[in-house]
Design a protein that fits this description.
Layout: H1 8-28, E1 44-45, H2 49-53, E2 57-64, E3 74-82, E4 94-98, E5 125-130, H3 160-181, H4 190-203, E6 209-214, H5 216-227, E7 232-238, H6 248-271, H7 273-276, H8 282-298, H9 307-319, H10 324-337, H11 341-350, H12 359-371, H13 378-391, H14 396-403, E8 428-432, H15 440-449, E9 454-458, H16 472-484, E10 498-500, H17 516-526
Parallel strand pairs: 4-5, 4-6, 6-7, 7-8, 8-9, 9-10
Antiparallel strand pairs: 1-2, 2-3, 3-5
Helix pairs in contact: 4-5, 6-8, 6-9, 8-9, 9-11, 10-11
Length: 528
């Protein structure tokens, strides 16, 4: 995951009152907020090649733009379905999937069932969907497709000019979204999508849903389970958002965790000095990285990869082990041969061009900026981020500027849902110990709030949301749970309940080869 104090008390009172009324209306109408059932989806063959290969069906779910006005303006949620392949007598219902973000496209994730071991996914109808504002859903939000292009200032505001430039950029992007988003901007909260999910359940004629959420998708699951506990059959939540840290504080938590993880990566590079020639110790590699970053301030690599772009390339190593070797080769080629092609290729892969290139980012902000209040005082932002930067310089200011449009976001912020799973059926939680995007403390907090949940830990691992990538200890646990509801025994204390080896780092110099389905999953979850 990459925040209006003066009016916060007034907003809180208004939203709590509104939420209470909405929940009462939901209860009167069977938990949907509607006097009648959601319209069924008109299914047709999907045009996406991967979905078509899996014989998926696609369609649109009509939902209210404003759930407090169910008869008002409608928007369309793009949905996909891959139906069960077991006999109907063994059918286990629908399974909704979300890849996170917020802002990530999810329609392609209907293929997830094919990756569950032991054919445990075959008993479900797998439902992917692009959340409101995202991808093929209508309307889709885009504000400025060139915002993440090249030639950006350094992230660390070492001068007033750099700081002023980034502030102007952030405010400009917020204004562009205000112009492009219109009424949609006021209806992009997590709770809006949760209500869409329950309408989707209804349109599928399902009494309950199974749900599989990655990253921010775990927060969607937490809020859905809090609001509609009786509608939950099973849930797999991988890479758990801490519901007590939404969202300003969670980004500061990330900064510390990413700095730790990049040092782990520097250690891996040092271990393989004979291959990459970047330093014999983690400290030497770290010095090399920051020295090169400083040089790029004066002369960008290939004319386009400056210090900000280099940070973005290396950030992927803090998220996942999958690309470690690719990043190492590209950086080594630059340092040793002044060949910037590898760095540019990696940057372009995570920052695509095109008229809707910023759709993910625009909706990310649309959700995070309005789910909860953010400080308006730039003094607080600078104080907090400089304090963290002093100990964790790798990603702190990059993350601050990524979220800075929230200071001047056009739509009002709300109050986060108080997550509670007291009456929710058993839930499977997954996390690696050193997950930086959703630090492990978040999984422990969710485990505490869902007293029937079980937490599986990839001990010592740094990969974010890495289930169904071939770690049998983790993946077989998922398969058994989806097949029968069986979970490992919950243990006492504030810790994980089952401990597995983590996803292993790659062999140096080797590009990982994956089956097409796993490659598709990796692209859906990681954006690469």
């Amino acid at each position: 995951m990459r925040r209006l104090l003066a009016a916060a008390a007034t907003i809180a009172v208004a939203i709590v009152s509104s939420a209470s009324g909405a929940r009462a209306a939901d209860e009167r109408s069977g938990g949907t907020g509607y006097a009648r059932a959601a319209a069924p989806i008109a299914w047709t063959a999907c045009t996406d090649p991967t979905l078509r290969t899996h014989k998926a069906e696609c369609g649109f779910l009509s939902v209210p733009l404003d759930h407090s006005r169910p008869e008002g303006e409608k928007i369309q949620i793009a949905v996909s379905r891959i139906k069960h392949t077991v006999p109907d007598a063994k059918y286990q219902g629908v399974a909704l999937v979300n890849p996170g973000g917020p802002g990530a496209k999810g329609r392609g994730l209907a293929v997830l069932g094919s990756l569950v071991p032991k054919r445990a996914g075959a008993a479900y109808d797998w439902i992917g969907f692009d959340p409101r504002g995202v991808g093929a859903s209508k309307p889709a939000l885009t504000c400025d497709s060139d915002y993440t292009g090249y030639n950006r200032p350094p992230y660390v505001p070492t001068t007033k000019q750099i700081e002023a430039t980034w502030l102007e950029r952030a405010e400009g992007y917020a204004k562009a979204c205000a112009k492009a988003g219109g009424k949609l901007l006021e209806h992009l909260k997590t709770l809006d999508t949760v209500r869409d999910m329950d309408l989707l359940r209804q349109a599928l004629n399902a009494r309950q849903i199974t749900y599989y959420g990655f990253s921010y998708g775990t927060y969607l699951g937490q809020v859905y389970a809090t609001r509609y506990p009786e509608r939950v059959r099973r849930m797999v939540l991988d890479g758990n958002v801490n519901p007590t840290r939404v969202w300003y504080d969670s980004n500061l938590d990330q900064d510390r965790a990413f700095d730790r993880n990049i040092k782990v990566y520097f250690g891996w590079l040092a271990k393989h000095h004979r291959v990459y020639h970047l330093g014999r110790t983690a400290r030497e590699v770290q010095q090399r990285y920051y020295d090169e970053q400083q040089k790029l301030t004066r002369k960008p690599a290939g004319g386009v990869i400056g210090p900000a772009e280099l940070t973005d390339v290396f950030l992927q190593a803090g998220y996942y082990t999958f690309g470690w070797a690719d990043i190492a080769r590209a950086f080594s080629a630059w340092v040793r041969e002044q060949d910037a092609s590898g760095l540019r290729r990696l940057y372009d892969a995570n920052n695509p061009r095109g008229e809707d290139a910023d759709n993910n980012y625009a909706v990310y902000l649309g959700v995070q900026c309005t789910d909860a209040p953010w400080p308006q005082s730039w003094t607080k932002w600078t104080s907090d981020n400089w304090e963290v930067h002093r100990k964790a310089p790798f990603e702190t200011w990059a993350n601050a500027w990524y979220n800075a449009p929230c200071r001047s976001w056009a739509a009002p912020s709300g109050v986060p849902v108080t997550v509670s799973g007291e009456t929710v059926p058993p839930v499977l939680l997954i996390s690696e110990s050193l997950d930086a995007a959703t630090p492990f403390a978040g999984s422990l907090e969710v485990r505490k709030r869902f007293p029937r949940s079980v937490l599986v830990e990839g001990v010592g691992g740094t990969t974010h949301s890495g289930s169904l990538y071939g770690n049998r200890c983790v993946d077989d646990t998922i398969a058994d749970y989806l097949a029968t509801g069986k979970l490992p025994k919950r243990v006492g204390g504030e810790r994980s309940d089952k401990r597995c080896k983590p996803i292993a780092p790659p062999e140096p110099g080797v590009t990982a080869k994956r089956a097409p389905e796993r490659l598709q999953l990796q692209r859906l979850i990681t954006g690469r």
